Amino acid sequence: MFLRITVALQTLALFAAPVTAGLLLATPSGQPLHSAAAYTVFAVSLVHLLAAVLTWRPGGGSPRPILHALVFFVLILAQVALGIAGLTVLHVPLGTLMFAMSVLQLSKVLPGGGGGHPSRSDGDRGAPDGHRRSPAVHPQ
């Protein structure tokens, strides 16, 4: 549950960052707002990493969310460095990629998520032995 909340907050913060970047370009007061958005994304991604560790260790869950959160945190560090260096040619596409990654991660942690295709029926997924069976054939 805590992991879902942190991923949702991360996605929301990543959505706010380009909005404040637009304000940065349009108004003189945009710099502090974009800086605040960057600090928020950094803090929320750090909490996301902590939530992934806490979900795995005591709950006995998969360590995979830790890898996702760690990679994301490293990307955040790169994003901050690129922003401070003024390399918008890399900063903007990386921010777009990170938002897309966060939305994908959010779709996986929400109930009913997991990457499965919603239009598939159980008969289309294949049998446990890897062979597809027609829905009309039922082994006895």
Radius of gyration: 20 Å
- Number of helical regions: 4
Portion of residues in helices?
Answer: 55-70%
Reported for the largest beta sheet, the result is: none
Structure write-up:
The chain has 140 residues and is an all-alpha fold. It has one domain (2-113). It is 69% helix and 0% strand. It starts with a helix and ends in a 31-residue tail after the last helix. The relative contact order is 0.12.
Compile the SSE list and pairings.
Blueprint: H1 2-26, H2 30-56, H3 64-85, H4 88-109
Helix pairs in contact: 1-2, 1-4, 2-3, 3-4
What's the short version?
This protein is mainly α and 140 residues long. It has four helices and no strands. Helices cover 69% and strands 0% of the residues.
State the main characteristics:
140 residues; mainly alpha; 69% helix
